[in-house]
């Protein structure tokens, strides 16, 4: 399970940004999950809560967005999308002759801080 390592890294990054902006608490985090990241959303939710214990992000809301893989189907000459690395078939024509541009990353895209700012 690599989710705990991902969440520990995210918690470190969030804490760094919270310190940099001198905020007391992080209230929400938005994360994009690449289609081919092999990341389980339930495990990520669970591990994130554990990784954020004792940090400024403890108890914050975690918003996850699963991204699709962008594809070009050579068979029907159109764009299509894949939601998983396991099924590599055009959603339009069922063709298997695809050019796939997939992201395997997990990225923090937005942080929301509370209104109370520490003057440290």
What is this structure's SSE topology?
Elements lengths: L2 H18 L5 E8 L7 H11 L9 E6 L2 E5 L4 E5 L15 E4 L4 E8 L7
Parallel strand pairs: 1-2
Antiparallel strand pairs: 1-6, 3-4, 3-5
Helix pairs in contact: 1-2
Class based on secondary structure composition and strand pairing = alpha+beta
Our estimate of the beta-strand percent is 25-35%
Mean pLDDT metric: 88
The geometry reads as elongated
For the CA atoms, what is the radius of gyration?
A: 18 Å
Describe this structure in words.
- With 120 residues, this protein is an alpha+beta fold.
- The chain has a domain at 3-67 and 102-113: hypothetical protein PF0899 fold, CATH 3.30.2320.50.
- Helices cover 24% and strands 30% of the residues.
- The longest helix is centred in the first third of the chain and has 18 residues, at 3-20.
- The mean pLDDT is 88.
Concise synopsis of the structure shown:
This protein has two helices and six strands; from the N terminus they run αβαβββββ.
Brief descriptors of the model:
6 strands; about 25% helix; 3-stranded antiparallel sheet; 2 helices; hypothetical protein PF0899 fold; about 120 residues
């Amino acid at each position: 399970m690599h989710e705990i390592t991902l969440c520990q890294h995210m918690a470190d990054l969030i804490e760094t940004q919270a310190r940099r902006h001198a905020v007391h608490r992080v209230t929400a985090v938005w994360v994009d999950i690449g289609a081919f990241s092999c990341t389980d959303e339930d495990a990520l939710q669970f591990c994130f809560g554990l990784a954020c214990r004792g940090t400024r992000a403890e108890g914050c809301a975690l918003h996850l967005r699963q991204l699709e893989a962008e594809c070009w189907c050579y068979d029907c000459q159109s764009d299509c999308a894949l939601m998983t690395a396991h099924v590599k078939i055009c959603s339009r024509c069922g063709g298997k002759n695809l050019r796939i541009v997939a992201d395997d990353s997990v990225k923090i895209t937005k942080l929301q801080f509370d209104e109370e700012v520490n003057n440290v």
